[in-house]
Amino acid sequence: MTAPTVTGASATTAAGSGIVTGAANRGLPARLAARTGSGALQIVLIIVALLWLLPTFGLLVESLRDPTQYSGGGWWHALIHPAQLTVANYQALLETPAMRSGFLNTVLITVPATVLVILIGSAAGYAFAWMRFPGRDFAFLVVVGLLVIPIQIALIPVVKLYAALGLTGSIISVIFFHVGFGLPFAIFLLRNYFAGIPSELMEAARMDGAGEGRIFFSLILPLGMPAIASLGIFQFLWVWNDLLVALVFSDSSSQPLTVALASQTRQFGSSIDILAPGAFLSLVVPLIVFLGFQRYFVQGVMAGSVK
Amino acid sequence: MAVVEAPGRPAASDRRRPGRSPGERGWIAAIFLLPAVVFLGALVLYPLIYTVIRSFFNDGPSGRATTFAGLKNYIGIFTAQDSLQAFENNIIWVIVVPAVVTILGLFFAVLTERIHWGAAFKIILFMPMAISFLASGVTWTLIYVDTPSRGLANSVVIGVHDMFGSQRSFPELHPGNSAKGLTGNPKQGFTLTTPVTSSDVALFPLTGFNLTSPPPGAEPAVKPAPGNGISGVVWNDFKLGGGGTSGAVDQGELGVPGIKVEALQNGKVVATGTTEANGTFRFADLGNGSYQIRLPGQDFTAAYQGISWLGKDLITPSIIVAYLWIYAGFAMVLLSAGMSTLPRDVLEAARIDGASEWQVFRRITVPLLSPVLLVVFVTMLINVLKIFDIVFIIQQAAGGDARYGNVLAVQLYTDYGNQRFGPASAIGIVLVLLVIPAMIFQIRRFRKDES
Description:
The complex is a heterodimer of chains A (307) and B (451). The longest helix of chain A has 34 residues. In chain A, α6 packs parallel to α9, α6 runs antiparallel to α12 and α12 runs antiparallel to α15. Chain A is built from 16 helices and no strands. Chain A is globular and about 75 Å long. The N terminus of chain A is likely disordered. With 307 residues, chain A is mainly alpha-helical. Chain A is 71% helix and 0% strand. Chain A folds into two domains: 37 residues, no CATH class; 213 residues, MetI-like (MetI-like fold), CATH 1.10.3720.10. In chain B, strands 4, 5, 6, 9, 10 and 12 form a six-stranded antiparallel sheet that branches. The N terminus of chain B is likely disordered. In chain B, a hairpin with a 2-residue loop joins β9 and β10. The longest helix of chain B is centred in the N-terminal third of the chain and has 33 residues. Chain A: It is found in: Cell membrane. Chain A: InterPro entries: MetI-like, MetI-like_sf.
């Protein structure tokens, strides 16, 4: 970010709020202001940032509070009475079988659903980018169109399909559904990225006698890593955070954390000792993924910005 | 995502590779595409066709399709109360959210360019995007819950309300059993049956204070001296351990502090006052004549309860606010990225020519950014049409008013749960029809990028 270092009047008007020094020092406040922006703007944006953090912070504090305090007042009371804080909720949560299996199921659903989408999407993306077959361009437009199809239309027929296949309620049924609806975005993103790989590299590999499989695994996948990472993170977060798909396709043995928690939301007040820490635990993993890989996440969002 | 131009790439590669026939290549392409075709066909395309057909059929037991229904399921969306409500709410979402998210994102994107810690600001605002709607829903329910001492929003609202001098309220107070001379009820307030004239002393004996924890600020009641206009006292005509004369201010009885008193003449309020800590009040500058003295009802009704955020009227706006919290950062990041591609020299030239920051924003930044603004807007439009999770979660805490926050996708899920597959399918198809303009937009944009 190159802040405007022009000495023009505009830079100083936006900046010079309050700092009145001698004319000789004019350069310093102007430079300072150019670096930091005006005081009022700073304050407004600090307030906005705090407002944005406040809900999550409240959830964290509530999750650490003795649940008997809930009916007595909001989480902010714990800031004045830190004695209310405890990790007992988290201990209790981790000892609740439904929550433990929910957490495990979330992992068991998310990881395969992400890996499968990457593999299948890469293969199709490569075919769309570098192979010639009849109807290719039309088929790809269909994929682009499918990007916006709401998953809701598939619930009833897929429930019936799974029943016919004997998959009802299984973890696999949830994974497969996520793969199906993750693919249009995956193919769209990867095809566009793969198409940008210089064709000379593939020519050279073919000259050396490499087959399509070799080229795909040892050339396309490594070179496509930035896009694959974006896709992976995006798909990971999408599946990890999903509620609707799991609500419809999982049963009590295969339900992920979101479904296990959603069933508690009806008794909001009396289940707060499970809901608050559970919700916070469920957001820790995505948050780590987001903070660790935000560059790829942002790229994924920007490339897709349709889902 | 630069789409590098590779002129005639597949054809060229075919020519340069002797020994492999086009037929063989098609076979390889089929292998690469097969898994995707199977998944997309079975889980997206086939369901789409199935749902279109199913939406025209009636429901039998356990959701089995029976007879042809024509458009009945579609008409039902706009006549059944719950789905009509859902449709109306979807319209509100569509009108409000994409526009507000885009504008918020634009302002944040422009403003973060001017601060040193713009990257940190972006991370903070973008973070809710990574969080599940479930966690966001629980988080915002914590804010919206109704009991004043629990919900953050209501605590703030009540705090502000009380700060602006609203009267204290004493729902526990009422005229004692033996009190004479007072008429009325807690709703309308209590009036002295005998009108008073200037220099009289008006007595309001009430009972009901919890004497083991009296209201803060209450001091022992004092009977004011007559003269200098109408004076009087409002007090709790009972003391710990009993005793004292009913209707008289006895030692140890507490005044009612800060309660409103009105003087009326011919049914009109001509003066209002508030009691002191010892329960006394005085209307010094009233003219001669007789007056009715009244304690208005507002002070006897229960304390201000704050706002019913998840009630009938506000549930949809409340959920929308939570949704804005999630998506403002998304819009900001996309628009920031768009802004980084704007030609700096154009902006600088305008500034040097004396354009104000607002003019630069309005006349240069916004027009140059309009393609990205459109993408953000359309993306939000698609998201909002399909909105489900956060509405579903926050509705759980709304009890009987939940249906006022209904949206189409939630209604679809409800119909699905009740095995009303016909109406559920019809809603699904309506959602598809609504996103088709957005789909066309996406395809056009893609084609433009390609060429």
